[in-house]
Amino acid sequence: MKSAVLVAFREPGFIEENVKKLMSKGFEIIIAADEPSDEILRITRKYGLKATISDKRRGKWKALNDAVEIAEGDHIIFVDSDTRIVELGDFEEFDAVEIVKEINASSLIERLANIEYFNMFLTAKVASKFSSCLSLNGAAFGIKKGVLLKLGGFRRCINEDTELGLRLGLNGYRVGVCGRAITKAPSSFKDWLVQRERWSLGGAEVVVENLWSILKRPKLWIPHLFLFYPSIIGLVLGFTLPDSVFLKALSLILPFMFFVHFKIVSLLLLSIFELHVIRNLIAMFTSFIIWALTVIVLSKKTDYSFELKLLPIYYFIYNPLWTMLCIVALAKVSVFRLTGRELKVKGWTT
User: Fold this and answer.
1) In the chain, which ranges are continuous DSSP H helix?
2) Could you list the pLDDT tens digit for every one of the 350 residues in the chain?
3) Residue 259: predicted pLDDT
4) Pairing, β 175-183 against β 96-103
5) DSSP calls for 202-218
6) CA–CA separation, 321 and 182 (whole Å)
7) Dihedral of the CA atoms 53, 59, 62, 63 (nearest 10)?
8) By the 8 A CB rule, do 65 and 145 touch?
9) Collapsing DSSP states into helix, strand and coil, what is residue 85?
10) What per-residue confidence (pLDDT) applies to 255?
11) Over the range 118-155, which residues count as b (16 or more CB within 10 Å of their CB) and which as e?
12) DSSP code, position 156
């Protein structure tokens, strides 16, 4: 038997559409809803569904665990209300599966996020080849109930999906990639920042708590680091290119060589500056070309569509911003952990 837990906060989203699709495939359906609208209650009654419903916000981890308690299936898929299942694939052959997600995008920030979701897919696919997993995307995924219970269920944290994915990887479970779902992303930059504050702090919380275990298993984090944060490639390449200590020293000394002709000193300084600029540009554009060609080829092979013209914006602006947010989040979580302060995200219940 297979169970599907459809998760909602207030609004129904695609719940009824998913109910119809999954019931036709023989799934037991369970609604896990906090502060449900009348529409969610109507859908639950109409189809005679099992449900765990709370008038107050429990926190997603608690809502999921409550649903697992009443699920009878050996395999469970979890689907957020803003996500629509298109196909599932052979998810039962794995201990857990990442369901491939695409974004039905209209705004610029959504279209850029769709490229990011392709990177998520690539990360999960490469990780599965190494029999590893660093995180799951909670919008849609599946897991064997026995595996979930053995791991102790969902834990109380900001990113319960990331934390569960890491535990799967650390304990050697087989995590596959299959199926397809359409999900939503923030349509405005302001909403994107709100989401990314939660994602980055939640991810940093998991990383800091398990740092040593992660570092000891490079196959867990190397695919994630370079595929999910591709702008790091340029940074690494920049470090590997020749960088003359002599030129650095000369650029510091030249301004004080007032006994040399003023114009000659200025031209020498300009030359050194331009050499550094050229060096950095070579690193940036070489890494971009390598990354862009790679994702274009892989997108064709996997039939995943996104706008190629947005790749430069994604690589040089969107992803570096996301990377910086993650770095700041790591610093904040580390300080809070050292000082014993509780980490909270505004508008999010744990």
Assistant:
1) 15-24, 38-46, 60-70, 108-129, 145-150, 160-170, 189-209, 211-215, 218-228, 231-240, 245-253, 262-302, 311-313, 319-339
2) 899 999 999 999 999 999 999 999 999 999 999 999 999 999 999 999 999 999 999 889 999 999 999 999 999 999 999 999 999 888 888 999 999 999 988 899 999 999 999 999 988 888 888 878 888 999 999 999 999 999 999 999 999 999 999 999 999 899 999 999 999 999 999 999 999 999 999 999 999 999 999 888 887 787 777 778 887 776 666 566 555 554 555 555 545 555 445 556 566 556 656 566 666 677 778 888 888 898 899 888 888 888 889 999 999 899 989 998 999 999 999 999 999 888 888 777 77
3) 47
4) parallel
5) HHHHHHHHTHHHHHT-H
6) 25
7) 30
8) no
9) strand
10) 52
11) bbbbbbbbbbbeeebbbbbbbbbbbbbbebbeebeebe
12) S
Q: Give the contacts of 184 (CB within 8 A, at least 6 positions apart).
A: 82, 83, 103, 104
Report the DSSP pairing between strands 140-144 and 75-80. Answer: antiparallel
Do residues 94 and 130 lie in contact, with contact meaning Cβ atoms separated by under 8 Å? no
CA angle 103, 108, 112 (to 5 degrees): 55
pTM (2 d.p.): 0.85
Q: What is the DSSP string of 163-188?
A: HHHHHHHHTT--EEEEEEEEE---SS
Whether 28 and 3 have beta carbons less than 8 Å apart is answered as yes
Distance CA 222, CA 230 (A): 11
**Other beta carbons less than 10 A from residue 297's beta carbon:** 10
Side chain identity at 28, as an amino acid letter?
A: E
In single-letter form, the type of residue at position 59 comes to G
d(Cα 295, Cα 290) in Å, to the nearest integer? 9
* Contact call for residues 108 and 115 (beta carbons, < 8 A): no
**Ramachandran angles phi, psi of 30, nearest 5°:** -125, 130
